[in-house]
Design brief:
With 572 residues, the protein is an alpha/beta fold. The protein contains 16 helices and 23 strands. The chain has three domains: 30-101 and 250-465, Rossmann fold, CATH 3.40.50.11780; 108-243, no CATH class; 491-572, no CATH class. The chain is globular and about 115 Å long.
């Protein structure tokens, strides 16, 4: 606003009086925690990494040229693949290791980077030297520690004075160790000949004994593993080679700390919760740890509890995340020891939820049974895996195809070959009322496998938050309004502001009503927005507060469809 007008004329002033549209936030981004085959590229151990497709997952969490899965059948790769196959888009993946905790240390010669001669025969092998562990902090083979070794042409050492230079036989080479663009070490005039004269060149093994970054592996007798023969024939071929670190193998007593992670360092499960856009989370590999006896049932429950509690606690904003947990394959009557997933009956998972875990929350969801998918590491033969990754993919697909208000059920999970147990209707009558969503095979209807449940893990008598779609829709509304009204802060708290806020929120909710997310034949029947003097009194204004009351009527799924049929005779 101009303060003074002196000369006659037309003055144009821009005044911001209109409402600002609210843009809906994304509720279709997932977070995964578990074991991967490798951690390379820009990815780091324990740190969440954004992945947008399966190829990108393999780029960060698989060895070069690999299929992305692991030799010990970690469930995370299956879950992420199921996420993408079922319509999932962007997700965040946090690797907690590439080997199961407590595994034997790998043979250095097996994990060494092997250099070949020009003829394709073995020449040299290199391992990465790790720093010593300090205190309680392990020496992590993070991907940033990966080095690049470059082999290139070199010559014999130069001679002094008028002495005749040695014959250049072509066996000599240089070796440069890099980390990114930084040169860490550089060696010239190297040879594969152990008897080479030091005035002519240096034996590569002798030189690399002093290296701070790489080493040549030894055999069981402590001898260096190196190709022998003529120096020219055993010389490594020119090129650049990535020296990968040895896998991180956690001690068994450290597993729960690695899985839980740390918020400040953005590691593990707690690190995933530091990624603002993640709206659903799963940790399928706690089932792998349980089946292998690394975690007991109480420890599994502790991880599940932490996931749900973190979803419930989203201060200062509204809670909007949901945890999708998997039922551990256990029969409580057998001492709470793991069983094969196909041996767990509906009554077993119902008993586990009631007497074992017994945690209720509107921010949790549970699916039964485990699903059967193809295992590329076993010739494509089936393997039973937890269903959480595939189910979250269906959530995302439903959001895109129909909307977040549509229950993610009565849909076909892609990539599923079968089920660990085929639940019938009578058995689902035991599970559905307690919030256990079934995946069922409707072969008799010729409809295939369908997700046949859409409930949260809330208390059975709390029908207001019974359905996943209702919980996620309200979270979507709350988060979108929170993000879309940040401009209101520090505006003059008067009737003009109240009207602008009212129009902003009303416009957003009207759009949801038109999309079919709210119940009612008109916007007035579907929601209301109140921001007036009744809510914002002189006392509240003096405290710097602006109150806005919003009420919505979400649509709910038709879970039970009842046709009442009787004989009818029209009047004659």
């Amino acid at each position: 606003m101009a303060l003074d007008y002196f000369a006659p004329g037309v003055y144009v002033e821009e005044v911001d009086k209109g409402s600002r549209p609210i843009e809906g936030v994304s509720m279709s981004v997932a977070g995964f925690i578990g074991f991967t085959e490798d951690v390379r590229g820009d990815a780091e151990l324990f740190k969440p990494m954004m992945v947008t497709n399966w190829g990108q997952y393999c780029e960060y969490f698989a060895k070069p040229g690999s299929d992305g899965f692991t030799d010990f059948d970690a469930y995370l790769p299956f879950a992420v693949e199921g996420w993408f196959n079922n319509g999932g888009g962007r997700c965040w993946v946090s690797s907690i290791g590439t080997k199961l905790p407590g595994s034997a240390d790998p043979d250095p010669k097996e994990i060494a980077t092997k250099l070949l001669t020009g003829g394709g025969k073995p020449s040299l092998s290199f391992n990465l030297k790790l720093p010593e562990a300090t205190g309680d902090t392990p020496a992590l083979p993070s991907s940033v520690d990966r080095l690049i070794v470059t082999i290139s042409e070199s010559t014999p050492k130069p001679v002094e004075g008028d002495a005749e230079p040695p014959l250049d036989t072509g066996e000599f080479f240089s070796l440069i160790v890099r980390q990114g663009d930084e040169v860490l070490e550089s060696y010239e005039h190297l040879s594969m000949n152990p008897q080479v004269e030091t005035a002519v060149a240096d034996y590569v093994v002798t030189v690399l004994e002093a290296s701070e970054y790489i080493s040549i592996p030894k055999d069981i007798n402590g001898e260096y593993i190196i190709s022998t023969g003529r120096p020219l024939a055993t010389r490594p071929a020119n090129g650049s080679y990535e020296i990968a670190p040895p896998p991180y193998i956690a001690p068994v007593d450290r597993v729960t700390r690695d899985v839980a992670g740390n918020r400040d360092r953005k590691e593990g499960i707690q690190g995933i919760f530091e990624v603002d856009e993640v709206a659903m989370i799963a940790c399928p590999d706690i089932m792998r740890l349980y089946q292998d006896g690394i975690l007991d049932l109480d420890q599994v429950h502790g991880v599940m509890e932490m996931m749900i509690s973190n979803c419930e606690n989203a201060f200062p904003g509204p809670a909007f995340r949901m945890a999708v947990i998997d039922p551990p394959p256990v029969k409580l009557g057998k001492g709470a020891t793991p069983v094969e997933p196909d041996q767990q009956k509906p009554q077993d998972v119902a008993q586990w939820l009631k007497e074992g875990f017994n945690r209720r929350s509107m921010y949790g969801a549970l699916y039964y049974p485990w699903i059967k998918v193809a295992n590329p590491r076993n010739g494509g033969r089936p393997i039973l895996i937890p269903p959480s990754g595939h189910m979250m993919g269906i959530w995302c697909r439903t959001d895109q195809d129909r909307g977040i208000f549509k229950a993610p059920a009565n849909d076909t999970p892609r990539g599923v070959l079968g089920l660990a147990y085929e639940t019938n209707m009578r058995e689902q009558e035991l599970l559905n009322p307690v919030g256990i969503n079934c995946i069922r095979n409707f072969a008799s209807y010729n409809r295939g496998i369908k997700v046949w449940g859409a409930r949260t893990l809330v208390e059975p008598d709390n029908i207001q938050w019974r359905y996943i779609s209702v919980r996620r829709l309200i979270s979507y509304i709350e988060k979108s309004i929170e993000m879309g009204t940040q401009w209101v802060v520090f505006e003059p708290n008067d009737e003009d502001l109240w009207g602008r806020v009212n129009r902003t929120v009303t416009g957003f909710l009207t759009g949801l009503w038109r999309d079919g997310a709210l119940f009612g034949s008109s916007p007035a029947q579907s929601f209301y927005v109140k921001c007036d003097g009744d809510l914002n009194t002189h006392e509240t204004i003096m405290k710097g507060r602006l109150y806005v009351e919003v009420g919505v009527c979400p649509v709910r799924p038709a879970e039970f469809v009842i046709f009442r049929i009787s004989q009818w005779a029209p009047n004659q």
